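Q&A log
Question type: sequence-to-structure
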Amino acid sequence: MVLDLKMSRIWCILFLGGWLALSQGTDNPGAIIKLDIGTIDHAVSTAVAESDILQKMAKEATKKKPNIKPIKGISGVKVKDIRPPVITLTLLPGEGLFMAVLIRMTIAGKSFIGGNLEITVASNLTANNKLLKDALGTPKFSSENCHFSLVSVKTNLPSSMLPKVLNKFLDNTLQKMLPGLLCPAVDAVLDLVNAKLSAMTSEISLGTAGTLQYALLNQPTTNETFIQLDLKTVLHQKEGDEIDLPTDELPLTSLPPKKEAATQLILSANFLSAELQVMQESFSLDITDNMVLGLPPLVTSMLGTVIPEIAGALPPSQPLVIAMREAKPPLVTITPEAGFVHFFNTAEFLVSPSGSAPESLFVLDVHSDLKARFVVKEEKLCISLVLDSLAEMALASSSIGTFDVLPLKGILANIIHVAYMPSINEALQGGIPLPNLLGIKYQQAEISMSENALVLNVPVAEA
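Response status: OK
Response body:
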């Protein structure tokens, strides 16, 4: 009984350990973005330029405020001009984003002596902004600790009138009006940036294959030069089944350093493998004689020539069909030197006499190594493949007896190169949609390879 109890505890520990290993594996990111401060700065500047925030600020400033007393001797106070703000962003390690906004505006009115009054004010806003993960896995900026200070005040009033009138104006109006006017403007800018961030988690169609969705896996982390976003890459087949990333192969063991003035997107080999798994059905092909022009005719007599010991068991000069099917999901491997896609097919050779149903002769298990080339087109990662080698080939079943398949290796490699590879590359033409984040233009990316990952360095756009 004691022994049984000990064994039960051991099995529980082993089960728990295995479960933890599995659960940690499923938390590996499919993609990582190292968001450069310049990319954030460009997004903020673009949001301000594309919006009417400044006009709204000016309109708000002209409204009567119940908590602000009118200034005796000055009437018709309004904001005459707000110049484009000067925004300075700084990353705070472990905290988020520090924003300093310098705003210059001209406040106009009528003075008690009947002339026009103009006061030019320069003010500075500072706010800490954290980039957080919301319940949907969307990155979202949140502002806190907004502080306001006057930098300078200039007026067209005679110098003899400055102390009394200007001090009253500052005490009664500017110090009360401007914080309530300008601090919400920081929130308004961040709302526009957040709207751009929310596009990242939209579900993306992969045509007839399925869908792809990016979402934050963990809370963003900030260091001196970038904000890191670890992304889940959620893939669903057309039937709705979710494709899990491999948990036992190709982890992201080390990340390449980020280049200066560039946002970096890292796509794991596991994610690329899962993406190809979603597309797996489109890799099936029945190869016939009219697809292999320039090669020996695809007929039974060709097989008899290559493998004499089966010649007597073959129907004479009948057309052949080679049915290429995926036996298990493709696997992507990447090193700093090269990227490969490994296909695991069955190649079924069928005799196809006219007017009769095809009959299976034999089936081969085929492992092909395909060298991969990566480019970005229309903000999608496109993969093109070329046959590097037939790594393995074995007889899986046969209706004509056993035989040595090695003599078939060369002819099958040629058939795959001429007929199968164009079909695969056509299926891959749609590309893999990349994260839609802050208007990043992946088309400009410099692509390199690291251990188990593809790296895209996107130069920061000029603000």
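Response note: Residues 1-26 have pLDDT under 50 and may be disordered.
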